[in-house]
């Protein structure tokens, strides 16, 4: 039990819950841990890759040490030791609604792509980032 959930998502192991600010919860015993050496995103919507090796999330850029009027999508390893920002953009436009559109990045079922929303123009668009094959 967590008294305040943000945007939880299940990992592929059907046991771990990935939560905002790079926190992992064990659904069997309720323990949690914050992944070390990672920034503390704000407004984030995390999702773990199908193989459990990567976590993608979004954040306002002010939480990442940049201008506060943009958003970024970042990917980290699930050990919490490395991360990379894969896209930064103005997200203040796009489709209008009573509820703002957030990037909400997620992995494809095969783990080879990341899908996320970008509202930088007149319409909200779906962006796709491809995961590079590891170099040997």
Kindly summarize this structure in a few lines.
The chain is built from no helices and eleven strands. It has 136 residues and is mainly β.
Could you describe the 3D structure shown?
The N and C termini lie far apart (42 Å). The chain is built from no helices and eleven strands. Helices cover 0% and strands 38% of the residues. The chain has one domain (9-130): TolB, C-terminal domain (Neuraminidase), CATH 2.120.10.30. With 136 residues, it is mostly beta strands. The strands form three sheets. Strands 1-2-3-4 form a four-stranded antiparallel β-sheet, with no helix packed on it. Strands 5-6-7-8 form a four-stranded antiparallel β-sheet, with no helix packed on it. The mean pLDDT is 90. It has strands spanning 9-10, 16-19, 23-26, 32-34, 47-48, 54-60, 70-77, 83-90, 106-107, 113-118, 125-130.
Q: Secondary-structure map with pairings?
A:
Blueprint: E1 9-10, E2 16-19, E3 23-26, E4 32-34, E5 47-48, E6 54-60, E7 70-77, E8 83-90, E9 106-107, E10 113-118, E11 125-130
Antiparallel strand pairs: 1-2, 2-3, 3-4, 5-6, 6-7, 7-8, 9-10, 10-11
Q: What attributes characterize this protein structure?
A:
mainly beta, globular, Neuraminidase, 136 residues, 38% strand, 11 strands, 0% helix, four-stranded antiparallel β-sheet
Which shape, going by the Cα principal axes? globular
Main structural class: mainly beta
Q: Which fold name fills CATH's third level, the topology?
A: Neuraminidase
The helix tally amounts to: 0
- CATH class, named Mainly Beta
Rg over CA atoms: 15 Å
Task: Give me the count of strands.
Answer: 11
Q: Give the overall pLDDT as a whole number.
A: 90
Overall domain count: 1
Low-confidence stretches: none
